[in-house]
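Example record used in the benchmark description.
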Amino acid sequence: MRFIITLRVNARKFGRLLPLNYQYEMSAAIYKTLSSCSEDFAAWLHDNGFKTDEGKQFKLFTFSRFNIPSFRILRQSNQLELLSDQVFWQISFLSENSTQTFIGGVFENRVFEIGNRDSKVQFEVANIEILPPPEFHETMCYKALSPISVSFRDGRGRDCYPRTPEEFANADWVKERLLVNLLDKYSAFYGEDFQGESFLDFSVLTEPKSSLVTIKSGASAETKVRGFMCQLALNTPPELQHIAYESGLGELNSQGFGCLGLM
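Model output (structure tokens):
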């Protein structure tokens, strides 16, 4: 289930500056909000999520970057200045339990902060809209609302990402990894393997733009994740289209990667 949340900027509290890398803080805000409604569910989602028989774990939700009508990037300080008084945020859950929690009003009238010690913004939830699910077909056209990340482990155990937009758009390993990821999510959610013909292909409709995102900036566990923003036509069975749209395409969806919007 997909939600569009309208957030009102309360500039009087902290101001209008966000760090350029704010995705991790958005994820933390979701967990904090869920825990205020159901501590047991939020703890289970954070610690376990959904598991395949092989032990792979998935949170099965994703979210967009903020849609900010007017902003300014401050390169020297790595900050984002919000010039508009409202921003829009899409959050999508595959889990029925989590959607019921949301419908119960977990975000209604909420006030929360996103940012770090140097730049932080307080937001007030002004409106929540539930988007009706689309009808899924083998070929769907999407735009990335947050970077699509896909990787493999090399012989030294390091995460390797596509090095160029061309590699992201054309490499067979990228499509293979995206398909395996969707099949694993399907298995984790439904408790059984996908029984139909499994395939995945995509073609980019716009030039992919590389985005290097810092997770847990400034902490000892800081990591950098590369993703790509673009519009694409995705060809895969409708059941897997549903998984991709509701829970995200690619990896690290619960940290704000792979959120797709319909074109």
